[in-house]
Amino acid sequence: MWRRMLNLNSVMIGTKQPQVLAAFYAQVLGKPADMEDSAQGFYGWQVGSAYLSVLEHSEMGGAARDHGRVMFNFETPEVQAEFERIKALGAAIIAAPYELGGGWIATLADPDGNYFQLVTPMG
After folding, report:
1. Which of 84-95 are b and which e, b meaning 16 or more Cβ less than 10 Å from the residue's Cβ?
2. Are the C-beta atoms of 15 and 35 separated by less than 8 Å?
3. Average pLDDT, integer, range 53-65
4. 3-class secondary structure for 62-108?
């Protein structure tokens, strides 16, 4: 039986400091939020074919406790250059760029401690 493939639509990051994360991701992505409702604590960006959003969530306090439980990847052919740029924005370095299977990966953390990776596009 044929089944339709699911499409990843969005990743949402809950936080008690939406303005801080919104400012951070605006710098990472190099553009202001595509959608914003600062009164509701919501900011969102179209990133490739998916959406990344930051929203205020009263149950999310402090740094992420399980930092690597969910990670999202930003593809770039310039992993090293983007790593240096985002490191300069204040991202925490989890793993400097390293080669894996002919591609490059670097892992960083946002101001809430959520991990994200820079990865070479897959062939």
Report:
1. eebeeeebeebe
2. no
3. 76
4. CCCCCCCCCCEEEECCCHHHHHHHHHHCCCEEEEEEEEECCEEEEEE
In the chain, the percentage of residues whose pLDDT exceeds 70 is 92
Token reading at 15? 């936080």
- Name the residue with higher pLDDT: 91 or 3: 91
Assess whether 20 and 56 both reside in one domain: yes
- Say yes or no: 79 and 122 in one domain: yes
Q: Which residue, of 41, 62, 83, is where some domain finishes?
A: 62
pTM for this model (two decimals)? 0.84
CATH number at residue 54: 3.10.180.10
DSSP 48: T
